[in-house]
Design a protein that fits this description.
The protein is α/β, with parallel strands linked by helices and about 375 residues long. It has 16 helices and 13 strands. The strands form two sheets. The protein has a seven-stranded parallel beta sheet with strand order 3-2-1-4-5-6-7, with helices on both faces. A six-stranded parallel beta sheet has the order 10-9-8-11-12-13, with helices on both faces. Strand 6, helix 6 and strand 7 form a beta-alpha-beta unit. The longest helix is centred in the middle third of the chain and has 20 residues. The termini are close together.
Length: about 375
């Protein structure tokens, strides 16, 4: 029996929460491991009912989380009797009392595009904060016994960045679990979706941040309005472009102003944050999935959209090609013109749409959360025995 300690204190939004919600049930279902999980108190209720999973709820503000982990977690790990530590938040313990697997999944630290974007926006403090965290993330890869990346594209980047070996274990997907919840959407969301009925609906699943490159997508909207004459087009966003409506320090002012300046207010539908268990309903009611992100490590919505049968238009990143293969059309990441061209190709050709959809359904089956957890448990075992 292998005892694991998993540090999920960094999981607060987006991919971190998606990851935690998918892997904990699979750890809990195993009979060859027991798991102690450190997480935020606000998430305790959601996970405490799982068998073989001990929850340690710790209140650690973002500003002092790194210090708290380095100073307090070693004692808790020893107390739990863990054989292996899995650090799931990009940062490793400098002196782990047991062998340590680091899950590294933040490409912002290695993205020159992100640093340029911050400087362009005048986000100098944010730039400095990211640089400092990047130094710590880089050192973490040296401290860990094994570092794991969620895609080969990102693993390659980390190897170049650190000169250290990095292993790839793809993140997974479980279609049945993803689509199991049939509870109705909030009335406000349902009303907005009904207002888009009869329109060609583009979907982009993300809370607002800079690296998802919302502005390139917004600039494509007036081009699409001109080229798709006879079609009414709506862009569905799972966020709101307003202050205080998104996690993190990202400012929505520029994106909101761009929507107004380009006079595409009528084309953008801000659904707001959708509970993960209900996201499948949004995919089902959309026509095309689009992502203009300029950096990624895996991008869960791509697999979710493929499993939902949606054709995909994605920025031409190595990780997007690795995940989607021939289930997407690609465009240069900052070209609104080419983004619009790819969408027009799909709308104009039922054959392309059908091919992308079929390819995506097949491609989505490659990814498995059970397989992901199996590989992590096997890796952990190799560090103990």
């Amino acid at each position: 029996m292998t005892r694991l300690f998993i540090n999920f204190l960094a999981a607060s939004a987006g991919g971190g929460l998606t990851y935690m919600r998918n892997v904990i049930p699979h750890f809990a279902a195993r009979t060859d491991v027991t798991v102690t999980v450190a997480l935020s108190p606000r998430l305790e209720e959601e996970f405490r009912a799982y068998p073989n999973v001990e929850i340690i709820a710790l209140e650690a503000a973002t500003t002092r989380r790194i210090w708290y982990e380095q100073s307090q977690l070693p004692h808790l790990i020893r107390k739990s009797g863990a054989d292996v530590l899995i650090s799931a938040g990009n940062f490793a313990l400098r002196k782990s009392p047991v062998p340590q697997i680091l899950l590294s999944r933040n490409s912002l630290y290695t993205s020159s595009d992100f640093y340029r974007d911050l400087m362009r926006r005048g986000e100098y403090r944010f730039w400095l904060d990211t640089k400092l965290k990047a130094l710590f993330a880089r050192r973490s890869i040296h401290w860990a016994d094994v570092t794991v990346a969620p895609s080969e594209a990102f693993a390659t980047e980390l190897r170049w960045w650190t000169g250290m070996p990095v292993r790839t274990i793809h993140h997974g997907f479980d279609h049945q679990a993803f689509c199991s919840d049939s509870s109705p959407l909030a009335s406000e969301v349902e009303e907005k979706l009904r207002s888009a009925e009869g329109s060609l609906k583009l979907l982009f699943v993300s809370h607002y941040n800079y690296y998802r490159n919302f502005e390139t997508l917004i600039r494509a909207l007036p081009l699409l309005r001109n080229r798709l004459y006879g079609h009414t087009l709506k862009l569905l966003l799972t966020c709101k472009l307003a202050p205080g409506e998104n996690p993190g320090a990202y400012q929505t002012v520029e994106a909101a102003k761009l929507v107004r300046d380009l006079e595409v207010d009528d084309m953008v539908i801000e659904l707001g944050a959708i509970p993960y268990r209900q996201l499948h309903q949004i995919y089902r009611r959309s026509n095309v999935y689009v992502t203009p992100a300029y950096t990624e490590t895996f991008a869960h919505p791509l697999v979710e959209s493929m499993s939902s049968g949606l054709p995909i238009v994605a920025s031409d990143l190595p990780v997007h090609r690795e995940i989607c293969g021939d289930a997407a059309l690609y465009f240069p990441r900052f070209s609104s013109e080419e983004l619009a061209n790819r969408i027009v190709e799909i709308v104009s050709s039922p054959d392309i749409t059908a091919k992308l959809s079929a390819n995506g359904l097949a491609r989505a089956e490659v990814f498995s959360w059970k397989r992901h957890v199996d590989e992590l448990v096997s890796l952990a075992g190799s560090l103990v025995f």
